[in-house]
Specification:
The chain folds into 2 domains: 6-281, Fido-like domain (Fic-like fold), CATH 1.10.3290.10; 288-351, Arc Repressor Mutant, subunit A (Orthogonal Bundle), CATH 1.10.10.10. 37% of the residues are buried. It is built from 15 helices and 4 strands. Strand 3 and strand 4 (343-346) form a beta hairpin. It is mostly helical. The strands form 2 sheets. The protein has a two-stranded antiparallel ribbon. The radius of gyration is 21 Å and the shape is globular.
Length: 352
């Protein structure tokens, strides 16, 4: 089994491009802290939106779905799951809540990871929750003809417990040695995915652990902006960089940089989104139609009513419709098409 030294790995990642990403994240984190101290109550609206989007997006990446109405009720614990997909959605909701509320008391230990995985499946009849894989697995890709290709062969089942202990110990050592957490976190997550310790739920666990480690390092933007949603929107790139950085992983000579740059870009995107949304939320006389207006104005190209509601799942359909009607009446937006295919775009001519 290969060894892990995150201090050495992270030192090799300090390229000009990665340092520039880190610098930008530091700047935006400072701005976020100012907003958090000034408008704690107002920003709770972002927390609610992000929770719904995170539960939805992380499960959708794995092909787990329910309706938007059912999703909102599940996230708010106002209903019980009715099928297998909803059982897994409810499990993710509860693990996410644990990380949001208790991250300072949830250390990165193998026993804790097993507990989180157990809770991910607590509504399910599956017996795999909280146990490592008992048979070796493979990461496969299926082409349009249904042919399967092995993209990566993870660690064998019998090696998994020791491998997990190794990466957890190596991460703790790196953080204690003052290694930059924003570099150590994606390096750890890449190794976690290459080990692929569970028979099911590895992708969702990787995203939950990412949030846990970011929060513990003081980067809690994922509480206000869904990092999982950003990953879902760029999942083709996510899979590409994962493949790129996992090449020669078993030999210990893989290049972490592609996956690290992608992760840092995702975090930076979340901070930028937070800054834009917080500016609207903390403005005087803020209201929900303003959120709809700012969303459309900031979007180059077209947007549907459904996409607006996915961005702001806490805004009712009636409020969205009223906002769209007023924006059309004032000439701020242009309506394209009709019926279920209706789209909207900001009237850039009206800006001048």
């Amino acid at each position: 089994m290969r060894s892990f030294n995150y201090k050495e790995i992270c030192n090799n990642l300090l390229t000009p491009e990665i340092v520039a990403l880190l610098t930008k994240i530091y700047e935006y984190k400072g701005k976020q802290d100012l907003y958090k101290n000034a408008k704690v109550d107002v920003l709770e609206q972002l927390v609610e939106i992000a929770r719904i989007q995170s539960v939805d997006a992380s499960n959708r990446i794995e092909g787990i779905y329910t309706s938007q109405e059912r999703l909102r009720k599940l996230v708010k614990s106002k209903t019980m799951p009715q099928n297998r997909d909803e059982e897994e959605i409810a499990g993710y909701r509860d693990v996410l809540a644990t990380i949001h509320e208790s991250h300072d008391y949830v250390p990165l230990k193998t026993g804790v990871i097993l507990q989180l995985h157990r809770d991910l499946y607590k509504f399910s009849g599956k017996s795999i929750g909280g146990t490592y894989k008992v048979t070796s697995n493979a990461i496969v890709e299926e082409d349009i003809h249904g042919n399967q290709l092995v993209r990566f062969q993870p660690v064998e089942a019998w090696e998994t417990p020791d491998a997990m202990e190794s990466i957890c110990d190596a991460y703790d050592k790196a953080i204690n040695d003052q290694v930059e957490a924003l570099l150590a976190i994606p390096a750890f997550i890449l190794d976690f995915l290459c080990i692929h310790p569970f028979n099911d739920g590895n992708g969702r666990m990787s995203r939950l652990i990412t949030l846990l480690l970011l929060y513990r390092a003081g980067y809690d933007v994922g509480k206000y902006i869904s990092i999982e949603k950003i990953i879902e929107q760029s999942k083709e790139t996510y899979y590409e960089v994962l493949l790129q950085s996992s090449m020669d992983w078993h030999e210990g000579i893989n290049d972490y940089s592609a996956f690290v740059k992608y992760t840092l870009g995702t975090i930076l995107s979340a901070y930028r989104d937070f800054s834009a949304r917080a500016e609207v939320l903390t403005a005087d006389n803020f209201n929900k139609p303003d959120m709809v207006r700012k969303l459309i104005e900031g979007r180059l190209g077209k947007i549907t009513k459904r996409e607006i509601m996915e961005e702001y799942p806490d805004i009712s359909q009636v409020t969205v419709q009223r906002a769209l009607r007023d924006l059309l009446k004032n000439g701020n937006i242009i309506k394209i098409g009709g019926g279920r295919y209706t789209e909207y775009t900001w009237n850039r001519e009206s800006d001048s």
